[in-house]
Structure formats: structure tokens, C-alpha cells
Design brief:
Chain lengths: 192, 282
């Protein structure tokens, strides 16, 4: 049930506790969608302000990250999509270059230095493979595999039927697998 | 189950933990006897793990985080809190409170909502075999709006409309039929007799018009009698859209989040209507 109670201060506190921890995830996705830091910043800010404005509609106990993503994707589609579609797909290098100096990289391999070292090359492989995917497959895969949303949640975020989520994940992952298989075999990640 | 069925229909959902109990049993039974698919399963899981571990995650720049917090402060600082402010701001901006009071329902729409109210109250079957009250609401309003559509929420941009819908706990998502040559004309929010909101988004193109209606589902199930040619097209993603030829109109029913349904109505022939929708799916 949506929380209708609470003073402004309570609401702010709850928002900071429940919604703002997802800021980096929303920012990263905004960068992927908008493809340049200025638009991503606008998209992020607009998303957070809308989430705050409609926070009374967020149902406690449901996935706040999925709810924030829903607002992000709606904002993107309602305002940014046309412009971004006219741009060519950006490569991983471009992604890196554009955001260089704008943000700090989080160690993707956690605190394991060995994984971090071997991960340096892998990041490029994975991002390149992702960038080669069409938008619809990439969005579905990122939401399921990276953000760990359920198909049901992704269906709500993207406003597509669950069956469509399922087929996009399946097809997207098959394409990604083909692109990554040879590399993964070299590293012994996939047994032959 | 053969390998092709497993790989095409089960594999991804299996790795994602999205199979039903019965499907999971079938999948495991197949894997137990198929080394090739066991290897394929391991690969699929490795790709998923690789993506989760190695896809880039960016930290929000401090300056951006700071400006967002400042913007939240600014929202908090206005009036008696964000909710009160939003209500008055949206009322001023969109003017929909006053327009709602002045709204005069067309006779057809009144009849339609009466049928809808009947179904809601009695919770039973529609009064006619093929009548479906939510479609009547959508179709009767479509007939009216096709002649004249007057928005009653600010419709300067899709974002304005999305805001207004979300304020009424309707989906903030808007269909975009631009690629199919339809322009967004505007939006209305009205209310059913039970007080629940219903939204109308109207699109006009060279080849016709489309009305998108959002309303609370009240638990209604998709009625039987789906259009055969739509199903026969095997349209990508069509599985959970339900298409109907309804009183001479093409109608599409789908279920959205927040317990809402979406009903799209057009005079377009069914096969073209299906194409409009499938090509415009987000």
C-alpha cells in the first residue's frame, strides 16, 4: 500500500534511504541511454525529481530500483528517445571517452586484485559486445543480468509483455554468447 | 523435450530462475539425459555472470549528486511539502480540476460507463455475449474523440501528459506511434462512476487515428473471441496483447503495471493496426 502518511522530513528521509542508494545504477543506465554525460545528467535529475514527487505512490516492500528504472525509461522515451535514436550506436571506447573525467570507475571485480587485473581486458570485450546489440536486447539484458530484476519487473519497466522480455533476453544473450564465447574459452571461463 | 525446444524456449528462463515448477521439472529431466544441453546451460550461466560482473558501473559525479540534493531541498522548501505543492502546481498548470467539474459526458459515454458500472457492481458476465464494458468505454469515446478531441490536461509535451497520468496513479508510459506516422494530439483524464481515473491519449496520422485508454482493470479478464488474423500473424510480442474486431473497430487489450489495462482503438484494418502496435512497441 502506498504510504500516504508522513511529514516532509519523514518523506525526505525515506526517499534518501530507499531511493537514493540506486542513484549510481540509474546514472549508469542514463548514460547508456542518453549516450552523453550532459543529457545523462539531465535525465538522471529529471528521473530523481519525478521519483521524489511521486514517492507516495511507491509501494513499500516492492523493488524501489525497478520503480526508479520505470520512471527513467518513461522519461527517456517521452523526451530523449527521438534525439538519441538519430545518433549512431556508440562504441565502448566512445562510452569511455565521453564519461572520462566525469565519473570514477567502480572496481567491477570487488576487492579481488587478481580478478581486477584479469578484468581489465574483459571490460572492453563485454562493453563492445553489449554496444553491438540492438537497443531492445541490450536494455532487457542489462535489467535482468546486471540489475537483477525479474522478468515481471522488467515487463513493468519497459512496458512490454513478459513474453517479449523473455524472448529479448533469450535472443540478446545468444548474440552476446556468440560474441564472447571465443574470448571466454581463451580464459577458461567456459569449458569446451 | 528435444534440445531445440529446451534451448529456444527454456534455457534463458531456466538460468534466470523464471521457470514455473512444472517447467523446471521438465527442463531438469531433459538436462539429466543430455550432456550437450548441460554444457549449453553452463555457457548461458557463464555469459550471465560475465555480464553482471563486468558491465560498467559508473558512480554519479559528485557535482551531479550535489545538484540533485539541492533540487530536492528546493522542492522541500516550497510551501507545506512536496505533495501539497505538486497538487496545486499541477492544478494550476493543467487546469484539470476545474475542467473535470465542467466535463459533460456524451450520451454514448454515459451508456458505456453505466454498463461498466453494472459489470463492476455485479461482478458477473457482461450483459451481452460479445459485449465487453471496458471496450465500450474506449470505443464510444473513440467515436466522440475522432470527431473532436479536446485535451483537459496540459499536452504540450509527452512529459506533461506522463506527469498528469502518474498523478492519478495511471501508467506514466505513453505509446509513441511517430514511426508509423501518427502524431500525439493530446490527453484527457476523466473519471468512471466509481471515481477511478480513466485516461485518453489521442493520436492522429494520415492513415487514421488511434485512441489509447488506461483504466483500472478491476480484475477483468481478456474476453474470448480474439481476432484470428492477428494471432495468425504470429506478431513478435503479440502473445500478451489481445486483439479483437469489436463493433467494426480494431481493438487491442493489454495489461500494465499498477493493476491497469491499456485499450487501443482504431478504425484501421486489423492487420495494419497490429503492425502499428508491434512496430511501436517500446
Amino acid at each position: 500500500m502506498a504510504d500516504k502518511s508522513g511529514t516532509g522530513a519523514d518523506r525526505r528521509k525515506r526517499f534518501e534511504d530507499e531511493a537514493l542508494p540506486h542513484l549510481d545504477a540509474i546514472y549508469t543506465m542514463a548514460l547508456r541511454l542518453a549516450r552523453n554525460p550532459d543529457d545523462a545528467n539531465d535525465l538522471l535529475q529529471e528521473t530523481v525529481l519525478r521519483a521524489y514527487r511521486f514517492f507516495h505512490q511507491f509501494e513499500s516492500g516492492t523493488n524501489c530500483r525497478a520503480w526508479m528504472f520505470t520512471i527513467l525509461f518513461n522519461n527517456f522515451r517521452n523526451g530523449y528517445r527521438k534525439a538519441s535514436r538519430e545518433q549512431p550506436a556508440s562504441s565502448a571506447d566512445e562510452f569511455d571517452r565521453k564519461v572520462e573525467g566525469e565519473s570514477l570507475r567502480i572496481d567491477p571485480a570487488g576487492s579481488n586484485p587478481e580478478a581486477l587485473l584479469s578484468g581489465q581486458g574483459m571490460e572492453g570485450e563485454v562493453e563492445t559486445a553489449l554496444a553491438a546489440l540492438s537497443e531492445e536486447f541490450r536494455e532487457a539484458l542489462l535489467l535482468v543480468d546486471v540489475e537483477e530484476l525479474s522478468y515481471q519487473e522488467v515487463s513493468g519497466v519497459l512496458n512490454i509483455p513478459i513474453g517479449t522480455v523473455k524472448s529479448r533476453v533469450s535472443r540478446g544473450r545468444a548474440i552476446l554468447r556468440d560474441a564472447l564465447t571465443s574470448f571466454a574459452k581463451e580464459r577458461g571461463i567456459i569449458r569446451t | 523435450m528435444d534440445c531445440e525446444t529446451y534451448i529456444e524456449q527454456y534455457l534463458s528462463a531456466h538460468v534466470d530462475g523464471e521457470l514455473s515448477a512444472a517447467e523446471l521439472r521438465d527442463a531438469e529431466e531433459h538436462l539429466a539425459g543430455c550432456a550437450k544441453c548441460r554444457a549449453r546451460f553452463a555457457e548461458e550461466r557463464a555469459v550471465k555472470t560475465l555480464l553482471r560482473e563486468r558491465a560498467e558501473m559508473r558512480r554519479t559525479p559528485a557535482a551531479v549528486r550535489g545538484s540533485i540534493l539541492a533540487a530536492l531541498d528546493a522542492v522541500d522548501a516550497v510551501g507545506a511539502g512536496p505533495r501539497a505543492r505538486d497538487r496545486s502546481a499541477s492544478a494550476d498548470r493543467a487546469g484539470w480540476f476545474s475542467i473535470r467539474r465542467a466535463r459533460i459526458w456524451a450520451p454514448a459515454a454515459i451508456a458505456a460507463v453505466a454498463i461498466f458500472a453494472f459489470v463492476m457492481l455485479h461482478g458477473g458476465n457482461p450483459p451481452e455475449a460479445h459485449a465487453f464494458a471496458p471496450f465500450d468505454v474506449a470505443v464510444h469515446n473513440y467515436e466522440q474523440f475522432d470527431n473532436h478531441f479536446e485535451p483537459n490536461v496540459k499536452s504540450a509535451s509527452p512529459a506533461d501528459i506522463s506527469d498528469a497520468y502518474m498523478e492519478h496513479q495511471l501508467p506514466g508510459f505513453l505509446w509513441n506511434f511517430n514511426q508509423r506516422g501518427y502524431k500525439l494530439v493530446g490527453a484527457r483524464i476523466d473519471h468512471m462512476p466509481d471515481g477511478s481515473p480513466v485516461s485518453f491519449t489521442f493520436y492522429r496520422g494520415d492513415n487514421g487515428t488511434i485512441l489509447c485508454t488506461y483504466m483500472k482493470s478491476h480484475g477483468v479478464k481478456a474476453p474470448p473471441g480474439e481476432a484470428q488474423d492477428a494471432a495468425a500473424q504470429g506478431a513478435y510480442g503479440a502473445g500478451e496483447h489481445h486483439y479483437y474486431e469489436y463493433n467494426g473497430y480494431s481493438v487491442c487489450l493489454s495489461y500494465l503495471q499498477n493493476g491497469c489495462i491499456c485499450i487501443l482503438v482504431s478504425r484501421r484494418p486489423m492487420h495494419q493496426f497490429v503492425e502499428d502496435i508491434v512496430d511501436s512497441e517500446p
